[in-house]
Amino acid sequence: MTPAARPVTPPDGSRRAALLVPGGGLVSARVAWRHSLRFRLALTYSLLALVLILLTSLGVVTLLLSRMDQQFTDRLNERADTLAEAFTGAQQGLGRTAGSASAYTMLIDTQGVVYATSPILREFNDAPFPFGTQGQVSVQDTSVRAVQRPVGDFGTIWVGLPEVDLIAARQSALSALLLALIVAPLLLLLTGWWVGRRALSGLEHAANLADRIDPTRSLATLPLPAQEDEVHRLLTAINRLLVRIEDGQAREKQLLGQIVHELGAPLTVLKASLQRAEERTNDPEVQRASLVADELTFTTQDLMQLARGELEMKLAWHYIPARTLRGRVDRLVPGTTFTGDWEGGILCDPDRLTQALRNLLANARRAAGPEGTVTLNLTETPEWLTFTVRDSGPGLPAELGEQIFQPFVSGSGSSGLGLSVSRQIALMHGGTLTGENHPGGGALFTLAIPGAALGDDSDEPDEEETDLLNEPPLPARS
């Protein structure tokens, strides 16, 4: 019989939903977009491309404008040379040449007075030449670039060419460059994001596969992509690492199993001999030795469970009276004060739950000392059974925190396996185990497992459960 998988909220006040199946599950979350590799690649690609586009565009625009300006200057010089040649040549007339050759033309005598102009410059006639040697002037709000040429006896000819078209072309080129610098970054970023997403899709898939690896459940190798690229090499390296981890775990389990096997047989004989001696002599020293043998027996049990791991541990579900469980732990850890409601029933693996509570009570008794108090309280709600173990000892070391539940971490001089095993058993029952310091002093451990209603849809217990209702208190299995 197994409890039904059902999301519930643990009674410790946390808001995380847990799926009540043996072993629990992993929770994965997507990385924020600003921390993603493809965003950084797209941004870097966009910035580099923008710099290259800016430099290239500036070079192209500068070259284009320079060529346009050179062509404009060449045309102006060509026009000035043509007019100067026409005025100095034989049989050419001033009015005919000036009127047909350029709209911006003036003849200046040797005294610097304008004596002939194009129609558009008539206002300068018979007046001193106003522009001197300036190469760029403004005529009637029009920018004009000008040059001068000598024309023999006539004096000097001044020829100008309006820059309206050149200025318009320059403004158009700069506007196009500015527009490109505004639009290009956005297009580059979107393109880079899309290209990066497609290019890194294999890497994202590999990350999702690696994120689902749970060494406590399986170390199966990851599937490799067909294309032998960087992602293929990454997954290959992860697979080699998984193989090494699996080999290391196998060696550790084998070593622990051998240690437990070597310790188990002598401890079993020693425990039986001490029990017989205790029955015959009732000697306090023999009783203490028997308790030490019990302690060593349970330590070997914890080592065996650590060697087997969560994958190999199976729960044997039974529905037993709470008083049966109470009798078991009372025999294993004498001197415990029981409070709460012990009249109901519990759906659990009796041996495993006994082992978990025994570890908690043994740690509490060790912390409280012979004269201290250890209390086990049971409360029941429609969804949860909560066991609370409190002692009168010094409390949990603040610097350990959650590390107290890791194997071989102890704050009381014990093996450091009991709390780790107890939490593992609680999780396999679909529950939780937490520890804290009680405000009134001492340590407080809370073990909560789902109530029987979560896993049994029928109202009547089966035949096996009925047989267990009157089960006498028994020691936990070794």
From TrEMBL:
It catalyses: ATP + protein L-histidine = ADP + protein N-phospho-L-histidine. It is found in: Membrane. Keywords: Kinase, Membrane, Phosphoprotein, Transferase, Transmembrane, Transmembrane helix. Residues 456-468 have a biased composition (Acidic residues). GO terms for molecular function: kinase activity. Residues 258-453 form the Histidine kinase domain. SUPFAM superfamilies: ATPase domain of HSP90 chaperone/DNA topoisomerase II/histidine kinase, Homodimeric domain of signal transducing histidine kinase. The keyword S-adenosyl-L-methionine does not apply. Coiled coil: none annotated. It holds the Pfam family HATPase_c. The keyword Transmembrane applies. It is an enzyme of class 2 (transferase). The chain crosses the membrane at residues 43-65, 176-195. Residues 452-478 are annotated as: Disordered. InterPro entries: HATPase_C_sf, HATPase_dom, His_kinase_dom, HisK_dim/P_dom, HisK_dim/P_sf, Sig_transdc_His_kin-like_C, TCS_sensor_his_kinase. PROSITE patterns: HIS_KIN. Its EC number is 2.7.13.3. This is histidine kinase. It comes from Deinococcus aquaticus.
